[in-house]
Input
Amino acid sequence: MLQNLETLAREARSWPFEQARNLLAHVLKKRLSDAELNAARVLIDAGKADEALATFEALRRPVILETGYGPSGLPHMGTFGEVARTTMVRNAFRALTGDHWPTRLIAFSDDMDGLRKVPDGVPNPEMLREDLHLPLTRVRDPFGTHDSFGAHNNARLRAFLDSFGFDYEFMSSSEQYRSGRFDATLLRMLERYDTVMAIMLPTLGEERRATYSPFLPISPVTGHVLQVPTLERNVEKGTIVFDDPAGGRTEVPVTGGHVKLQWKPDWAMRWTALDVDYEMSGKDLIESVREASKICRALGGTPPEGFNYELFLDIEGKKISKSKGNGLTMDEWLRYGTPESLSWYMFQSPKSAKSLHFNVIPRAIDDYLSFIDQFQTQEPAKRIDNAVWSIHAGAPPKVASPVSFSLLLNLVGVANASSKAQLWAYFAKYLPEATPETEPTLDRLMGHALNYYEDFVKPAKTYRAPTEQETAAFEDLAARLKALPADTTDGEVIQNEVYAVGKAHDFQPLRAWFGALYEVLLGASQGPRFGSFAAIYGLPQTIKLIEKGARGELAG
Output
């Protein structure tokens, strides 16, 4: 599926392929000498990545892409966006290298972090208050379903990612620290402590500098993750000494899960220990990436390739905040739109700030559907840059929906529908062969349209009375449609009559005529292609609607 696309991938202009080419250059430079790099590049550019891997042993290791997750809360829109976008880069890299080079996507959970505050909306908050400052994997689960709060949220993360079909490897911070996977890099951090401190201290305020240490020891007495200064360090023994508020002066090894790292040194340590090749992050972490990269180099590692994406804004253009609740949750998007439409929205201009609000969902759905349709007739060079290629790993569905989401929204309103069954009844003549089984996407969109109309469109509908010019045009259109066979289901035939009326009544510009149709008949400023709408709604019903609009009854 992703093979034999090397030439197209080298020329593709969409951002996942730009990132994939950057990743390839990064990995070659990281793993090969200059002479080897040039030879490998010649082979890969010739579509012979398999020969390059056979020739250079250093290239046989999988390319590692990583995304991070803080399990003090549930997965959210940012979690989806980061995994979806990283997956797009991964698939572009696979196409660029003929799918010969193994890749891994690690979804890393920082579940050894201490619980700093009780999240809103969880049961048994008093139990969590008792467990404050414990690692999340030692905090009791307030839901009573798992061994710890961290395990509960990790399970939710995996279920969340699985529901979208992502291919990933889950990795727990607690398990990696305790298993010894990070021990060698932690000992190196201890050895190069002064260098790490020299990187971090200039970035901190005066008060924070006085107590800062990259190591956060776990109290042997309370089990708390402690933010305390390192008083002594013993590189030979691999230990640090600190003052434990519950146990006095204490010495612990930095290995085996007895400490965790502050998050920026932790990020750098993880890049080094796991040999991460690619990780993207939000624009708000640019400085953090810079500092973590310096620490990674100090540890003898190579910082990963990646880029900083813009953050989403609310409808007022303000930064979205989980605490303020001014954004859009995953559950809310999926109530009103499809997962594919969300992936479409994540694909678009990741380095540009965009509003993430309910009003973007209908457009995202219809844009996704239109690009599915375009994909079928595009030449290969255009297809690979079509967003649906990246959304579906090169194999988008051959058909989308026979009608747009905006049309369904208007059909729901005009038909006063409250169920899918009512909507399917209108399609009986327009698409007699269609059923929920043969048109599953349409069936899903009906459910989303019913929800979206009820919650957003219906409360905002505003009808107006027609002008004299519009009244005459409506009456003319009704007469023309009455002259057509009552069972007409050809939207183009109806649309031609609509155009003819607009021109005959001299609407300047012509779009003012369509604006009148939407505002007078549908109570909205925009609407679907009117001929298609009328074909599904039914010609007799459409004529009655036009006549009521002409009399001003809808505005009443």
The CA atoms of residues 313 and 355 lie 5 Å apart. The chain has a mean pLDDT of 94. The first strand starts at residue 63 and ends at 69. Residues 440-460 form the longest helix (21 residues).
